Amino acid sequence: MRDPVGHLPTGEGPSPRLAALFASFARVGGVLFGGGYAMLPLLECEVVGRRRWLTPAAMTDLFALAQVIPGVIAVNVALLAGQRLRGWRGAVAAVLGVITAPFVVMLLLAGVYDALLRHAWMARVVAGLRPAVAGLLLGTAIRLVLRNGCRAGLWAICVGVAGLTLLLDLNPVWPILAAVAAGLAGQWIGARRPRREAAP
Asked: Who has greater pLDDT, 75 or 147?
C-alpha cells in the first residue's frame, strides 16, 4: 500500500505497536461525540500529546487530507494516521480501534433507544452535549487556521466559507472541493512564478 503522506514528520516517540495503536484509537472513538470534526482535539491529546507519535503539523495535515477523501472523517483520519505510523497493518488496527467502541455502544442501545428518548434526563444530557461539541468544533477550526499562519487571506477564506455555508445552507462538499481547486491553482501559480523570474 502506497504511503500517501510519507512526507509528513512523525513525532519524537517510538513507532507504536499495533495493540497500542488499536487501544489509542479505541480510547478516542469511545468519547467521540459530535462527529469526525470533533475528533482532532481528542486525537491530538492522545496521539500527539500523550504518545508523541505524530507532530501537531502532521496531525493537522492528515485531518485536512481526510476531509477530501470520501467516507466518514473519523475513519479516514484513523486510516491515514495508522498507515503513516505502521503501514497497512497500522491502518487496519487504527480503523478497528476507532469504530469498535461506537459499534458496541450502538448494539447496546439499539433495543432501548426509543425508551431512552422519552426520559427527561436524556433530553438534558443531549442539551448539555450540544454546547460542549460546539466548543470543540470552534476550537478545532481556530487551531487549524492559527497553525497555517495568521495571514489575512486565510482568515478571509475561513470567514467567507463559514458565512456562505450558514447563509446559503451549502452542502459542505462544495466548499471543500472549492478549497481543493484553490489550493491546486495556488500551487500551479507558485510553481510558474520562479520560472518567469528565472527566464532572461
From this structure: 75
CA-based radius of gyration for the chain: 20
Element (H, E) at 191: helix 173-198
With b meaning 16 or more CB within 10 Å and e meaning fewer, what string describes 15-44? ebebebbbebbbbbbeebebebbbbbbbbb
CA distances from 119 to 21, 72, 113, 122, 131 (A): 37, 30, 11, 6, 20
Cell 425508551 belongs to residue: 115
Whole-model pTM: value is: 0.68
Written in H, E and C, the secondary structure of 67-99 is: HCCCCCHHHHHHHHHHHHHHHHHHHHHHHHHHH
Q: Could you tell me which of 108, 117, 8, 21 has the C-alpha nearest to residue 63?
A: 8
**Side chain identity at residue 56, one-letter code:** P
The tens digit of pLDDT for each residue in 165-187 reads 778 777 777 877 777 787 778 77
- 22, 26, 27, 29 alpha-carbon torsion, rounded to 10°: 140
